[in-house]
Design a protein that fits this description.
Layout: H1 19-40, E1 44-45, E2 49-50, H2 53-70, H3 74-97, H4 100-106, H5 110-140
Antiparallel strand pairs: 1-2
Length: 150
């Protein structure tokens, strides 16, 4: 039977690429792209999502942080996913409740609220998948005899 090639780096090593890093890379790039579209477009991105200068700056800063954590360790990326999940979860709840200061500050509309809910779910998924993968790797790590520990 052919040997399975696995990513042998540890999650604390920047060379290890797990689900949380993928979430950070992909969403970081998307956030930066959306910020650029918002800065140079009009008040509606894709004709659906309302944005303003504050909203665009948040997208840009969020994208930079996500990309940076995507190039850090899996552990850092996982922590970032949890942090963004909490932040976006709060923004989602406040947006659906129509809290005036937040809605006015970020020019939120219902499409933004649904997108923020989706982002919250993606960030939670990235963090949970990362935790599962690390725990699963520990379970099947080779034993001194060379066989998996299951």
């Amino acid at each position: 039977m052919a040997d399975v090639v696995r990513n042998t780096a540890e999650p604390t090593n920047p060379a290890y690429v797990g689900p949380a890093k993928w979430v950070c890379w992909i969403l970081g790039a998307v956030f930066i792209l959306i910020a650029i579209l918002g800065f140079f477009g009009n008040d509606m991105v894709f004709g659906v999502f309302m944005v303003n200068a504050a909203h665009n700056w948040i997208h840009l800063i969020s994208g930079i942080v996500l990309l940076a954590m995507g190039f850090a360790t899996e552990v850092a990326a996982r922590s970032t996913c949890w942090t963004f999940a909490v932040i976006y979860g709060i923004i989602t709840i406040l947006g659906f409740l129509g809290v005036p200061w937040l809605v006015d500050l970020l020019e939120l509309n219902m499409a933004d609220n649904w997108l923020h809910l989706l982002l919250t779910i993606v960030f939670v998924g990235g963090a949970l998948a990362s935790q599962y993968q690390v725990r699963h790797r520990e379970r099947i790590a080779p034993t001194p005899t060379g066989r998996g520990g299951i």
